Each structure stands twice: as C-alpha cells, then as structure tokens.
C-alpha cells in the first residue's frame, strides 16, 4: 500500500514540478504515466490529472503572486472568452471533424514550438513583473482565448499549451509572466473539468489523493526552480512540450481512428 | 475594452492578497485532509477494497460519512476543487467594488458557464 502511494505521489511530483515551471497543467504527462505505468483506468487517470492541475496551480500561484508575476487583471480578463470557447467546443464538438481540427491545431503548435525553441520574437525580460508589464493587443488575446478554449473543449487538451504562446506571442507578455499567469488560469479551468469527473464518479480517491500530494510538493519545487532557471531554458522546454503536443495532435489527425 | 481604463492589478493590491490568502488556506486544509485520509488508509490496510471512489457531497454532511478515510479524502478533494472557484468569485466582487462592471459581469459569466458545465455533465 505504502509503495503504491509513494509511486503515485512520484508521478504527481514530476507532473507538478514541470507544470509549475512551464505554466501548463501537466495532464499530458500524468495521464499516460498513470494508465501505462500504473494501470489506472483512463477515466480515473484523467480525473486525477485534472485534480493534479488544481494542486499544481494553487501552490505555484501563491509563489508567483508573491513575486508579482501573476497578471490577475489579464487572467480574469481572458477567463470569460476561454470558458465561452470551451462551452462552444463542447456544444459543437460532435458536428465537426475532429481529425481536421486536430491536424490544424497540431500544425499551429508545431509552428509555436519552432518559434519558442528558436526564440523568435518572444518577449523575454527576466526582470519583468506585473507592475512593469504592459500587455498589448487586448482583442487578439480575447480572440485567442476564445479559439484556444474552443479547441480545448473539442480536443480535450489543457489550457497551458494555448495560454502561454497566446500571452507571450499575441499579447507581448514576457515568458515568466505568461507562465505564471497561465498556471493560475489552468487551475480554474481544471477545477471545472475535475468537478465534471467527480460528479460522474470517476474520481478514485486513493489515486487522486496520492498524486495530488505529489503534485503539491512538485509544484512547490517547480515554482522555485523556475525562478532560478534562465528564461531561455524555460522557453526551450516549453517549445519541447508544444512540439510533443503538436505531434500528438498530428498523429491523431492522420492515424487510424479508434 | 482598453487595458488602461480598468483597475490595475499590482503586488500590493487587495485582490492579489485575497487570492493568495484563499489559495494558501485552501491548499493547507486540502493537504491536511488528504494526508490524514491516506494515512488512515495506509494504517488500516484497506488496499484490497476496490471501492474507493468519490461519493456525493451530501454523504459528507453526516458525521459517520465524514469521519472515515474516504470521507476525509473526499472532503480534501472537494476543498481543493472549490479553491479556484472562490478565487474567481473574489475577482468578481473586487471588480464590482471598483465599479468595473463589464469586467465583473464577464467574470460572473465565466463562473456561470463553469457551473453549467458541471451541472450539465450529470
């Protein structure tokens, strides 16, 4: 029992650390780990992933708020568009060809990954704080959040991989602030998704409890590491995550339907 | 809507402090409850029981439902899920007090959509 709990906590710890550093939920790491390595049923793994996102978000947000890196004004401003987008995605999902959408989104993410890794036109001020940050292109942000939310609702991907490039490339928010603001946002959307899985009875208390405790610890470590790591490394790491997610989407588009 | 017309968030403002406080307290309560629940399970060796799934929150209103390993785990996870929602509600109130009505309404709209998503999934 204790070994199982520790292994689950380890999975949560890895996910929480990466999620807190890069501003992503980390479900793309945790869900395969739980299903493939630990044999957890997919619905329970996704439920644990969503609750893990909240744990990562809460701990990391507190740290980033103290460092004046969470642009709450921006986050609250984009929340409505993102949730409307997610609702649209959920409503029209059955009427659209998921493979075409996955293909388009995969290619967009591959482009984002390339730009992130090369550092092309990415605002990268290591000393930036909310007080000094001046986001631009407010309506681009709203449109991007709506589009990202819709794709998220349609394709079941987390918000972080959309939020960070949107804030960074679309609204000229420096990378560290984009990651910190994104981690606050994904906690909110994660809470909604987690509540859905909870109400459907997919929440395995032991799996969720252990992974959440790991995610708390991982997020605490990840948020502190992010403050010490050069932002160029964070940018490249995010590029790798975006590339991985993009390739997954392209495979989903061209691969055999299940 | 222009950025400059709306109240600015800064590290010292009431919104940041309130959100940080809710996150810290909520996380602390959730960690305590989840740790207690898992420790209880580990101590009593109930690993063979496959039925450790979430129960409806109404079951936690009875003491006998709450004071169990599963009850503590359930409550801990519910507290954790509630924390971001409370942060959103705080944002709506804060912007309303600043008379940024459009912002406040947008946040309330987001809250309603999130609530509808949960209710609609049942």
Provide a compact summary of the structure.
With 258 residues, chain A is mainly alpha-helical. Helix content of chain A is 78%, strand content 0%.
Main features:
heterodimer; A: 258 residues; mainly alpha; globular; B: 122 residues; 0% strand; elongated; disordered N terminus
Structure description:
The complex is a heterodimer of chains A (258) and B (122). Helices cover 78% and strands 0% of the residues of chain A. Chain A has 258 residues and is mainly α. In chain A, helix 1 (2-22) runs antiparallel to helix 2. The longest helix of chain A has 25 residues, at 42-66. Chain A is globular. With 122 residues, chain B is mostly helical. Chain B is built from 4 helices and no strands. The radius of gyration of chain B is 19 Å and the shape is elongated. Chains A and B meet through helix 1, helix 3, helix 4, helix 8 and helix 9 of A and helix 1, helix 3 and helix 4 of B.
Topology:
The complex is a heterodimer of chains A (258) and B (122).
Chain A: H1 2-22, H2 27-37, H3 42-66, H4 72-92, H5 98-118, H6 138-155, H7 160-170, H8 175-199, H9 205-228, H10 231-254
Helix pairs in contact in A: 1-2, 1-3, 1-8, 1-9, 2-3, 3-8, 3-9, 4-6, 4-8, 5-10, 6-7, 7-8
Chain B: H1 14-44, H2 63-66, H3 69-97, H4 101-120
Helix pairs in contact in B: 1-3, 3-4
């Amino acid at each position: 029992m204790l070994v199982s709990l520790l292994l689950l906590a380890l999975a949560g710890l890895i996910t929480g650390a990466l999620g807190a550093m890069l501003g992503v939920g980390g479900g793309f790491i945790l869900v395969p780990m739980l299903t493939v390595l630990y044999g957890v049923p997919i619905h329970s793994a996704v439920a644990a992933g969503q609750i893990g996102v909240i744990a990562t978000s809460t701990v990391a947000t507190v740290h980033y708020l103290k460092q004046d890196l969470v642009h709450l004004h921006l986050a609250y401003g984009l929340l409505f568009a993102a949730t409307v987008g997610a609702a649209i995605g959920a409503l029209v999902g059955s009427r659209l060809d998921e493979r075409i959408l996955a293909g388009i989104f995969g290619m967009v993410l591959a482009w984002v990954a390339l730009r992130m890794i090369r550092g092309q036109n990415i605002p990268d001020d290591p000393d930036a704080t909310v007080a000094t940050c001046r986001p631009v292109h407010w309506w681009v942000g709203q449109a991007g959040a709506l589009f990202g939310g819709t794709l998220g609702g349609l394709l079941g991907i987390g918000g972080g991989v959309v939020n960070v490039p949107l804030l960074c490339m679309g609204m000229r928010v420096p990378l560290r602030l984009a990651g910190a603001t994104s981690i606050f946002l994904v906690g909110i959307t994660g809470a909604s998704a987690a509540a859905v899985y909870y109400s459907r009875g997919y929440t395995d208390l032991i799996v969720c409890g252990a992974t959440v405790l790991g995610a708390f610890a991982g997020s605490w470590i990840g948020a502190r590491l992010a403050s010490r790591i050069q932002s160029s490394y964070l940018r490249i790491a995010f590029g790798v995550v975006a590339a991985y997610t993009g390739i997954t989407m392209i495979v989903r588009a061209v691969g055999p339907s299940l | 809507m222009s950025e400059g017309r709306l109240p600015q968030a800064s590290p010292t403002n009431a919104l940041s402090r309130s959100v940080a406080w809710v996150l810290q307290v909520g996380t602390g309560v959730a960690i305590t409850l989840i740790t207690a629940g898992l420790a209880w399970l580990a101590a009593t060796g109930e690993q063979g029981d496959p039925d450790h799934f979430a129960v409806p929150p109404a079951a936690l209103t009875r003491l006998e439902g709450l004071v169990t390993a599963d009850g503590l785990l359930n409550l801990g996870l519910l507290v954790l899920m509630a924390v971001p929602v409370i942060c959103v509600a705080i944002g709506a109130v804060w912007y309303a007090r600043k008379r940024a009505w459009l912002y406040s309404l947008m946040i309330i709209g987001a809250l309603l959509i999130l609530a509808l998503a949960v209710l609609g999934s049942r």
